[in-house]
Amino acid sequence: MKQIQMNENSSFSLISTKKIIQLNDVSTSYDSKSFALKGINMSIERGTNYAVVGQSGSGKSTLLKLMNGMMIPSNGTVKIDYVTPKMNDKKFKKMLHTIGYIPQSLGLVKNITVLENILIGALPRIGKIQSLLKKFPKDELDEARKILKLVGLGNKEYRKAYMLSGGEKRRVAIARALMQKPTILLADEIVSELDHVTAREIMNLISDAQKTMNLTAIMVHHDMQLALEYADRVAVIKEGEKILEIGVEGNKIVDFQTGDLNTEEIMEMYADDSKK
Description:
- The structure is a single chain.
- The chain is an alpha/beta fold and 276 residues long.
- It has a domain at 19-110 and 182-275: P-loop containing nucleotide triphosphate hydrolases (Rossmann fold).
- The protein contains nine helices and ten strands.
- Strand 1 (19-29) and strand 2 form a beta hairpin.
- Helix 5 (138-150) crosses helix 6 (166-179) and helix 6 (166-179) runs parallel beside helix 7 (196-212).
- The radius of gyration is 20 Å and the shape is globular.
- Residues 272-276 have low confidence and may be disordered.
């Protein structure tokens, strides 16, 4: 077996893994009486599109909060590139800007312009005084305008966020996340309440950005059909437990985790709630 001599001058400073996100036997609770998530095992490969599907209250949003450090598990371990996501951990704070998070509420500031909302994504690189005075470096402004064009809003940079349509607001939220220059993109119900045409436009936008920027995208959905269409793998969550992990290969749905539901049952139970 080949051995590697390690010394203080070695270039092997970091360990890299194909599995960028790992959850091992994770459970968590909001009130210590009942678990929001129970015994979750999840391994997500770098540069892939991963979807989490389940009905309201199943624990999908909680999963994303565990991944970005907004919550810590009651049991088990969560690792993001070998780092435990905790807001009070210095190592995690340094890498937090690499995790773009889009909440269900989108988190836009409604009374400022589209361009200013997008520049919020650059705050980790810009001094507080500069941001308060709205004195942004030219290279950051150029990057923001480039991303604006990428998301199809190049002609609306000075429009206030509250004046935008639902689809446009989602494009701004995506642009703000991309402005962080992330390696991971977390999106919580990004296409909920949108018509199918607009939903697919948003999904195509994220898919293109994911491939172009080599992002790892983790998206929460209600719509199983949409998830299977865009994701490499889909985790099915029911009452806080991961009951299936599936994906599409050719014209077949492949079961990566043995479950007790057939394809028709899955599609019926986790169809787009907006149709119900």
